[in-house]
Amino acid sequence: MTEATDQPGEDHVLVEVTVPAPADAVWAALRDPRKISQWFGWDADGLKDEIDFIFVTHASADEAKRVVTFEGVNDRYEVEARGSSCLVRVVRSAPAGDWSDVFDGMIEGWISFTWQLAFAFARHRGEVRRTLFFSGPPREDRLALSLLGLDAAPAPGAPWSLPLGPEARGSGEVWFIARHQTGVSVDAWGDGLLVVVDQPPTEKHPRGTTMLTLTTYGLSDAAFAALEARWQAWWDQRFETVGPGCD
After folding, report:
1. Which candidate among 33, 34, 153, 229 keeps its CA 20 to 30 Å from the CA of 48?
2. For residues 185 and 123, what is the distance between their CA atoms, to the nearest angstrom?
């Protein structure tokens, strides 16, 4: 979490997504830690504590307006009813400026997680997910969107089909495309979701860094273990493992 700024700010919409579910149901998914765990972040030992810190002990909610405000940052979640669906957006109050070339890890996280929320409601309402997560710089000058062939993904809603990392063939639908990341559904993962985030090169990481979140539904323990083994081997050959925000 970053510290809030004391400078005068204006509202910037970081991500806005239409969720095909009633506003009250989506609002509950922003307030109930058990439901938050089915779209926020990825499976990790500290996920429960992170959710509690961000959404419970350091958040305040306006139930009437369906707005969650987070302590220590200038970001908030808003849920706006639209008939049987709703709009979910993350808004940041910050000084005016051109953000078009900025890579901000928190912004990228809000984008990924909000689209994961929409996917859970649109395709797997009430189901339990299992995820894999990988993060770090590439061993050579090629980030994951290019390695996976997703740097030229068709428009959202379009089908895709191509070799996917260690998978001989992958297929599904393009779920979303943002400036630094792309999400695609993956049929073979129980209609799961792959989110790929590529950070451009920096002084610390001159080749850039990648984060992959693989969300699965309904896989057996054996199938999930095999998936993890394949992707871990593929990752280790091409990337170092460094946690988000770590050197």
Report:
1. 229
2. 10
Closest CA to 133 of 33, 34, 231: 231
Report yes or no on 26 lying in a domain. Answer: yes
Residues 6+ apart with CB under 8 A from 131: 42, 43, 213, 214, 215, 216
Q: Within 10 Å of residue 104's Cβ, how many Cβ atoms? A: 15
Domain ranges, residue 114: 10-124
Give CA–CA dist 88/169, Å, rounded.
Answer: 33
Tell me how far apart the alpha carbons of residues 79 and 110 are, in angstroms, rounded to a whole number: 14
Question: Are 117 and 139 members of one domain?
Answer: no
pTM equals 0.92
Q: Are 149 and 176 in contact (CB under 8 A)?
A: no
Q: Which residues pair with 214 in a beta bridge?
A: 132, 194
Q: Is 48 part of any domain?
A: yes
143 and 109 housed in the same domain: no
Q: Which residues pair with 79 in a beta bridge?
A: 88
Smallest Cα–Cα separation from 20: which of 88, 66, 111? 88
Residue 177's nearest CA partner among 199, 159, 162, 196 is: 196
Per-residue pLDDT tens digits for 229-240: 999 999 999 999
Phi, psi of 231 (to 5 degrees): -75, -35
